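User:
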Amino acid sequence: MEKSAIVTGSSRGIGAETARRLAQAGFAVVVNYVGGKASAEELTEAINSSGGRAVCAKADVGKEEEARLLFDLAEKEFGGVDVLVNNAGIMQLSLIAETDDATVTRHLDINLKGTFNTLREAARRMRDGGRIINLSSSVIGLRLPSYGVYAATKAAVESLTVTMANEMRGRRITVNAVAPGPTGTELFLNGKPQELVDRLSKAAPLERLGTPKDIAEVIAFLASPEGGWINGQVIRANGGIV
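Assistant: Predicted structure:
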């Protein structure tokens, strides 16, 4: 039976590398995007050209009906869903005192509600023995100024992760979260002064930023048979920064 994976927000960064890595592991992949159509299509073509299977789907997971479409597509093209990687997210930094309502709502809609919507579909439709991997953030432990709203949504994702793991009892579905530290992606680098990037690059004992590949390898492990005994956990993949 062909196994499939949905990777949300997979047109670039950690999501794109994860989709590529899961395809290498033999999963048929739904590559999801909202605004990065060209890069998502390029990734889908690259996977198919290298002997894998992938389809590309525009869907805003913050909207229930669009999150549902990802599962519809996976079932139509691949027969079902075996892995869900909740990677879609935004990060807009501002001090709590300076954060407007629109910024709060956008983080809640994408980071939290987007994850919730796909988790709900997975609870109803994922094949037994599946794997769910949510993306959190090690910034929860770092407690840096200006990350308040972003960190709050990721803390909520960690709570959903543990609850979902317990609710999947009897179905052999594992639910875990991966919490990257500073990682050299557009999401992380955008808008940051070079001084801050340099400082965060040296903060971990390994003295470098993480890479999308670093994170994708952890996700691929959790999605593999070898990762089957890890459940209800948050793995801080951050080079030891916290």
